[in-house]
Amino acid sequence: MTVEQVPALSVEGLGKRYPTAGGMLHAVDDVALSIARGRSMGLVGESGCGKSTLVRLVSRLIDPSEGSITLSGAEIGDVPARRFGTRPERARIQVVFQDPSDSLNPQFRVFDSIADPLRRLGELRGRAAIAEKVNATAANVGLPEELLMRYPHQLSGGQKARVGIARAIVVDPEVLILDEPTSALDVSVQVVILHLLADLRQRLNMTYLFVSHDLNVVRLVCDDVAVMYLGRIVEIASVARIFETPSHPYTRALLSAIPGGPIAERIRLQGEPRSPIDPDPNACRFLGRCPKGADLCGQKGPHLTEVAPGQRVACHFPTI
Amino acid sequence: MTLPAASLPVSHASHQNPTVEPARAEKVALVDVEDLSVSFRTRDGTVAALDRVSFSVARGRTLGMVGESGSGKSVSAYALMHLLGDAAEVSATKMTLAGLDLLTARPDAIQALRGKTVSMIFQNARMALNPIRPIGLQLMDVLRRHRAMIKADAREAAINALAEVRIPDPKRRFDAYPFELSGGMCQRVMIALAFASDPEVLIADEPTTGLDVTTQATIMDLIAEKAAKRAMSTILITHDLALAADHCDDFAVMHAGHVVERCTTATIKSAPVHPYTSLLVRATPTAASSLAELSSIPGNLPDLRSALPSCRFAHRCTFRQPVCDTPLPRVTLSDRHIVACHMPWKDAP
């Protein structure tokens, strides 16, 4: 196997459970995905489906209950999260957080926000070297130099988004996790940031895990999509396949709910989501809201199965 | 002067309220606003938030008010509801709401209208709800005040109202405080409150922002269903052009305190003529087939505290001409199509 074939990011059997008063809450359950170097994978699903937990696991901010996380073939899942921050791998996987207004330190000037990860993680020593790298990164994301001495409250939403991206890429990561990077922005600004992200990925050969609730944005910036429901991945395929031949009933409902979306069929989910606390291992998590639910779905939980080349679906009755 | 064709796909969920006979719907404007101007005095100078804004909504129809943040969408709604504070200076040549002339009406007449005939869904539901009162009691307050129900009836009606907006286990949630509910559930409570008084006019300010698409679809269906059943007039304020195109009959596109274009949804989808409208359409991801097709809008909104030119879009506009510095015209292209531009793009395909 050559180096090219080792995925940049790969997770296998990943799970995270939290103890609650009512039992174990399965936030992420048996998740497997891998992203090849230079590719961009979208992660979509409703709030509460485990997207954010998965992001925090993969970016090593919290520890998994089970499973493995590998970065270019090297295991990083077994390093405790509290020690991961000082490891050299920390620089190789970075996160752009959701709301740039909330995730920037209000007391840091832009320059220091970008320089901080460099000082902590980078191999650069000396003020001149760090300043040079910060300036180069700011130029890379289109931040004018005169903004570097400003505080976050003196910036517009789009400028703050650029700072959030700059400080993530300043340590030259291989994998960038983007957690709803444009959801707080107006469409006019969103366009600019999406173009910037696409351009950076190409120029710096980065690998993206792109979390978003906006399927239209995912369609435009990602190569593949993983659809999550209640802690599990229910469908994973290329963007074209997900949008042209969505197979899982939940994916179909999700697409039909997008204004001006690709599915003419009008699917509205009825009923309540099942509880994530001690879920029945022998039942499909979507049962109860699923328009196709049958007896079999309550007796045997479906596993991801290939229904077409490059399209895997966890459903007993996939649409093909 | 040509722009590439900009269009939103014609959507399946688009609805025209079938229960309203057109003749009646066309005639009665439940909301009619002409030349509404609002300015705020602040320490840093006067903010000209709205400048001669006009819009109207006929009975049973839905108006989509769209534009970037800061374009004056919410201020228009607040002005209409008489909810702006003393710092606001409001003027208009005409402002009627559900038959009441707001320019001459006494405050108590407006108060009687508000929350009963006219309801508003506020943007941030968790902030808009009373944090120290259970949601069921908040609903009962509205029902008892506006529908004169006795306690027991109001309680039952409140539980039904919660069930109607798909709140799971409404009997138990009746006693919940807003902080115990998710953002989406607070939003649904807000909608239940707005509908509790059975309004004729609904002003929905970003009713589904921050909700999942699946919840958003359910809530928009609910608003559409109510609107059809009661021939309710709705103003949907949103920054989501695709959502508005799915649910509205008419559009008012706002930019920096101006209504730059008023037209039907069909026009927005096929042939908007104001340069800002077409740029907004082409910045919306729904229609684009690739990222390259998605184009940005140059420049930023002007600072509304400064001296403003007659056309507030001119500095961002690629079609700017010397004539653009003269007073802004209001060009009527057809019965339902008005544009505030010297150079409307008339050659639209």
Compile the SSE list and pairings:
The complex is a heterodimer of chains A (320) and B (349).
Chain A: E1 9-20, E2 23-35, E3 40-44, H1 51-58, E4 66-71, E5 74-75, H2 81-84, E6 93-96, H3 100-103, H4 110-121, H5 127-140, H6 157-169, E7 175-179, H7 187-204, E8 207-211, H8 215-221, E9 224-229, E10 232-238, H9 239-244, H10 249-256, H11 295-299, E11 305-308, E12 311-313
Parallel strand pairs in A: 3-8, 3-9, 6-7, 7-8
Antiparallel strand pairs in A: 1-2, 1-4, 4-5, 9-10, 10-12, 11-12
Helix pairs in contact in A: 4-5, 4-6, 5-6, 6-7
Chain B: H1 22-27, E1 29-42, E2 45-58, E3 62-66, H2 73-80, E4 88-91, E5 94-97, E6 100-101, H3 107-113, E7 118-121, H4 125-128, H5 135-147, H6 151-164, H7 170-173, H8 183-196, E8 201-205, H9 213-230, E9 233-238, H10 241-247, E10 250-255, E11 258-264, H11 265-270, H12 275-283, E12 331-334, E13 337-339
Parallel strand pairs in B: 3-9, 3-10, 7-8, 8-9
Antiparallel strand pairs in B: 1-2, 1-4, 1-5, 5-6, 10-11, 11-13, 12-13
Helix pairs in contact in B: 5-6, 5-8, 6-8
